[in-house]
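job 3f2a | input accepted
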Amino acid sequence: MNITSFNRCNAREKTREYGLDLYRIIAMLFITALHVVNMHFGLLKEGSSPLNYYYGWFIEYVAFAGVNCFAMLSGYLMVVSNANSASKCLPKALELWFQCVFFGIGILLFFLFFIPSTHVSRNEVVCCFLPITRGPWWYITSYFGLLFFIPVINVYLQNMSSKMQLKSVLSCFLIFSVFPALLLKQSVFSGGYSTLWLMCCYFFGAYIKLNRERIWILVSQKMAFGIFLLSFLLPYVLFMVACNLIRGKPLILSYLSPFCVAEAVFLLIFCSRIKITQYWIAKPLSVLSSLSLGAYLFQLHPQIWNTYFSTTIVSPKNPVAFLDVVWQVPTAVIVIFSLGCLIDYIRKICFRFLRIPSLCSKMADIFHRIMDYLLTSRYLQRYWS
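job 3f2a | predicted structure (385 res):
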């Protein structure tokens, strides 16, 4: 590394917001906790002991904002980034596709070599090579679509006044979050499992970035943390009351829920104001943050999901004491998160050796050249003229 590159790396490290790395890690831990509590431990199912049941739902209400956090962070980081141009979106999308293929094929081969009894269907093999369209990772599919709208959203926001930005954000929040909650309609945007909802969350995160100084004046760090706590405690208390008085079902628990949106927003505001200068804290945060998506790809791989998550260890026939569940759940979350990060670290080394990022850039450049040639062809010029 030459002196110029070294100085550039040092400058980048000094300007890095490590609080956002913490935010990304928390978001992935939230997502992992949702899968562990509901699928593996089965704490939300009927027949679970009262303490385990309420503990499971408490984690659900705390962690349900994880997906919103991830999408909002994309908006916060990419709205003023050089990587948001249209020419950079395709390489990023291609590298994401290669990352999914690596996880799909790599984990599948691991099971075939080390667990001979593993049954692999033809559909699973096809899904490994077509992870975006047929894969098990719904968030990746939705985010892949979002990548191509990011340049449009950024231009739209950056050419608006702060007042118009606020009007747009409030309108989006009222129409797609508040009104569906009041009408008990959670099917808008497929309940949040869609590119359109990720676009809304991206919009919220981008607004926070563009108006950060004003927001920091209005909302202190302590206030942001307090509202974050209130955003999941209040609906959880309402849920407890509904269970005890009217035997109700989970209340306002959706990605579109105003409480869920508020939790992600104010946690982002809180983390964006965290200043971390100690190298021994900042470096691990930045490394884990860059690997955190691997935890999601790892746990939703069909072989991992069917082997681990689909097997419920807590049931009326196999009860587990509440105190055991209290420490087993966070332990399982940390182990799964760590394994996913480890695999993604190996993936990064392989990609660096195979020069996959460079390959993605070249593939995108070839695609853009073909498109430019077609758009400048005589036939198209004659057609559009």
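job 3f2a | Residues 322-354 form the longest helix (33 residues).
job 3f2a | closed
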